Amino acid sequence: MWPNFTTSMPLWSWLAILAVPPAIVILYFLKLKRRPIEVPSTFLWRKSIEDLHVNSLWQRLRQNLLLLLQLLLMLLVILALLGPSWQGRELADDRFIFLVDNSASMQAKDANPTRLERAKKLVAEYIDAMPSGAVAMIVSFADGAHVEQTFTDNRAELKRRLALIKPSAHTTSLVEALQVASGLANPGRSAFGEGDVSAAAALEATMYIFSDGKAVQPADFALGNLKAEFVPIGKPEVANLGIVAFNVGRNEERNNELQAFARVQNFGTAEVKTIISLMLDGAQIDAVEATILASSTQGVVFPLPGFGGGVLEVRIQATDDFPLDNTAWMPVEPPRPGRVLLVTPGNKPLMRALTTEHAKRVATVIEIGPAHLGTEDYRLEAASGAYDLIIFDQCTPKTMPEANTLFIGSLPPEGWKSEGTIVNPVVIDVDRLHPLTQYIDFSNVLIVESRGKLESPTGGRVLLDTTKGPILSIAPRGGFVDAVLGFNLVNSQEWETTWPVRPSFSVFGMNVLQYLGGGSESLSSMGATPGQTVALRHPGVLKSVVVKTPGGESITVPRSNRNTYEFSATDELGVYQILWDEKDQQELAVNLFSPEESDIAPATKLNLGATEVQEGERTEQVAPQPGWKPLLLAALAVLLFEWYIFNRRVYL
Amino acid sequence: MATTDTPLLTPEFLARLEQLELVSRKVFRGRLKGERKSPRKGHSVEFADYRNYVVGDDLRFIDWNTYARLDRLFLKLHFEEEDLHFYLLLDDSRSMDFGAPTKFWYARQVAAALGFIGLVHSDRVVIERLNQPAQEQGVTLRGRASLWRMMDYLQGIKAEGGTRLAQGVKNFCIRHRGRGIVVLISDLMDKSGYEDALRYLVAQQMDAYVIQVLSREETDPELTGDLRLVDCEDGDMAEVTVSAPLLKKYKQTLNAFVGGAREYCNRRGMSYLLTNTQQPFENLVTSYLRTRGLVR
Question: Of the candidates B232, B244, B250, which has its C-beta nearest A45's C-beta?
Fold first, then answer.
């Protein structure tokens, strides 16, 4: 349908304007300026001219391409000056905020090519439909918000920034994005009651949210001066199978065997039959055919006989619109016994508790005397973190080692305090939630005496409390943990307590080895979700560690002042390699594991606080669309062509 | 650009020209003893004919062998060796002063080269201009010693005035009734036509050569736009709007003109040669004119 053509000029003006080109043609021929050129003889030229009759009017007109182009140029300029316009539509309002969802679910391929690309294309159309002089802002959001472009009326810049929005594997949350959008429309007020004034003038804005709606929505958000419109992206009828959990554990029936467990959920409305395969270090080792009912989950078990560690990967073979959740990884390290150093003048009960058959699977215990604390060997080992746990029984080192510690009857050289002694303390409280004191019964334990007023450094926690004060406390020290037991277990003369002969003492010994000793009788693996910061630890003291992402990029992570390596670039899904040194490396898996993201059927509404925002069309108003721009562009093109003709001397 | 300071001929080319000589297709009678065969009977060693003895003849030329056989007295006749009359007729109209190098400079170079060949072989070389007054004689030169006088003369003449081919050739024929070789060097751009002029030459019964010289601006004009062409000789103006068809038509007209001149000359026993100022004149003299038979 041809748009309605309007003009501000009356008909007689048009007629007058259209009479100008013929007048110019007439003038052109009347005042045709010819350039004089001397030639040896006009003898042959005259003969040629007579044959061609080139002096006829129409011949000159036909052959003068430049004149024709000048006429066309002038016509286009006149038309542009007349200010023609077409009746069109544009967005109502003059201030816009475009929120673009770039979370994991927006990588679904039900919109060609992806939902995010579809959203970007729609935003570009909205930008084109903005009225003249309107300003807009672009904010991308996943689990956090990022302002891609602050308010501007430069449409080219808006589109350029829009194109730079990249997809992410993060989950979705509207909270931060709405706070950013609300920050302008609803400026914050001063914190003090009387004379409360606005920090800045409120600016109304229309906010368009381009998302599939799979977002955490704020419970207590007020739109205020914002007008919200929801533009859902994605097809309503989509099917997706996703892996929502994957781990490895011991076979409950056969304890020496391991198993891999995967949970697959069908987010579609139809039953799906597919093959789920298990890979170890890139090679397939098992596959299971599974039929998953609509809107339900199914667990899949893979036995792992003789498994000694490696990177496990479970993969759904079916092709669906959301491939990000079709694969999950788990790097598994084999059990590694902890390294424990016991510095004691002699403590047979303690040694027995730490070297049971069960305890040997968890940690290796080495015993030395307090005299060795002054040796160079000890100093080097303690400083290099050669041990996961050092137990100081009735002795104290000069400096704290790079390891967890347990002090029995003594205090660390710094940070801890005690005053006097307490006699026959009765335990009134045991912190059974803490791994060190879980499963411990202290009701039948007698203690002769203990350090009084035991005080731990900041962040400490009391694990055993008596009527006369704490007797067992624990406190963090950088990346390590120090525990202090205020009473001796034995001395050279006699028993200090009946605890070693109670069953709970052996349990305490196992708790110490498992919690403080660094060992594990089970498999361990490191995992994270996209965007999560992971604190990496290493027994050695390295300035930094290199982490290689699944995409092949190498990132150097420096050691923090808490003796950990904070790695936050977990945006990609897959297995990250942590390269401590040439021989020592670990793996870290980043998996989506988000049913909210895997359920890719787009929502039809959003709940922003108390306001329900339905899917709606953009608010438009009728507005004249000026036509002078294309006319001027055409005039410029004609001018360039005329210049080309003039310079190249092209003839008809 | 050639100037009066630039020599018409280089010493190297002069050395090459010494190997050449002018050739006449007919035998012409000269005034002085030269190196050419003359129809007149004279005293060379080459036998020509017999005639009867009359009283008073020189007894030294009686052929006694013939008398012994026929018992009659006969006189032996021999060919006389005389010089060749070589005429160079230059078009010195303003239209010749066009091009780079100018047609006039080119024509003078050709004239100097041919004149030098004649001088080296003791021919009588006469150089005349079409626009010189009827009573004025051109320069007559003979012998190698006249070379520099010829060069000075050619360097000093200027191209001015209109093209009057017919009148100029007519005046030349009136001034020189003798026989010989005449070389007309002109662009033939006379609005009255070249036919009358060439007819005069034919009537003179000379060995005539016509060298038409054109410039690149005439053979391949690079004109564009709306122009007013002004004739440099008579100020005649022609308004044109240059286009591809016009240029094409002009070249056709030029080819027809040149073709007409060639045919006119060939039919009347004159040699015609078209040259362009872009063509090295050395090649013209040593190659083309050799092919035409003017030099060898």
Answer: B250
- The runs of H, that is alpha helices, within chain B are 11-17, 64-70, 103-120, 147-156, 165-175, 195-204, 216-219, 244-267, 281-283, 289-292
pLDDT of residue A9: 61
Residue pair A576/A549 in contact (Cβ under 8 Å)? The answer is yes
Structure tokens at B12: 């190297």
What is the per-residue pLDDT for A417? Answer: 93
Asked if the model's pLDDT at residue A472 lies above 80, the reply is yes
- A49 to B245: CB separation less than 8 angstroms, yes or no: no
Q: What six digits make up the tokens of B172?
A: 């030349």
Which residues of chain B does A41 touch, with a Cβ-Cβ cutoff of 8 Å?
A: 95, 163, 187, 189, 191, 231-233
Q: What is the spatial distance between Cα B208 and Cα B206, in angstroms, rounded to a whole number?
A: 6
d(CA B147, CA B135): 25
Enumerate the residues of chain B whose CB falls inside 8 A of the CB of residue A52. 245-246, 249
| Any B CB within 8 A of A649 CB | yes
Q: What is the ipTM of this complex?
A: 0.77
The pLDDT of B129-140, averaged and rounded, is 87
**In this predicted structure, what is the pLDDT of residue B43?**
55
Q: Which of A54, A560, A126, A29 has the alpha carbon at shortest distance from B247?
A: A54
Compute the distance between CA of residue A173 and CA of residue A221 in angstroms, rounded to an integer: 13
Cβ-based burial of A617 (10 A; exposed 0-12, middle 13-18, buried ≥19): exposed
Nearest to A337 by CA among A385, A389, A378, A289: A389
Query: Is B95 in Cβ contact with A42 (below 8 Å)?
Result: no
Please write down the HEC assignment for all residues of A420-467: CEEECCCEEEECCCCCCCCCCCCCCCCECEEECCCECCCCCEEEEEEC
In sequence order, the 6+-apart residues with CB closer than 8 A to the CB of A294 are A266, A268, A269, A270, A271
Residues B226-236 have a mean pLDDT of 87
Lowest mean pLDDT: which of A145-154, A219-228, B153-162?
A219-228
With CB atoms and an 8 Å threshold, state whether A35 touches B237.
Answer: no
Residue A193: per-residue pLDDT: 43
Residue whose C-alpha is closest to residue A529's, from A66, A17, A12, A104: A104
Q: Which residue has the tokens 């040699």?
A: B271
Q: Please answer yes or no on whether A41 and B189 come within 8 Å at the CB atom.
A: yes
**pLDDT per residue over A108-140, tens digit each?**
998 879 999 999 999 999 998 888 888 999 999
Instruction: For chain B, give the percent of residues with pLDDT over 90.
Output: 30
- Over residues A491-506, the mean pLDDT reads 82
Q: Which of A30, A45, A63, A64 to mutate to test the interface with B (most CBs of B within 10 A)?
A: A45
Query: Which residue type occupies B12?
Result: E
Closest chain A residue to the Cα of B98, Cα to Cα: A40
Q: Which site among A33, A38, A39 would you substitute to test the B interface, given the most B Cβ atoms closer than 10 Å to its Cβ?
A: A39
Q: Is A301 on the interface with B (CB under 8 A)?
A: no
Yes or no: say if B89 and B96 are a contact pair by the CB < 8 Å rule: no
Degrees (nearest 5) of the Cα angle A62, A64, A68?
A: 85
A649 to chain B: which residues are within 8 Å by CB? 224
Contact criterion met (CB < 8 Å) for B238 and A649: no
Percent of chain A with pLDDT over 90: 36
A650 lies within 8 A of chain B by CB = no
Distance CA A101, CA A99 (A): 7
Residue A194's pLDDT band (cuts 50, 70, 90): very low
Residue A469 has pLDDT above 60, yes or no: yes
Rounded distance between C-alpha atoms, residue A610 and residue A224, angstroms: 11
Q: Is A52 on the interface with B (CB under 8 A)?
A: yes
Average pLDDT, whole number, for chain A?
83
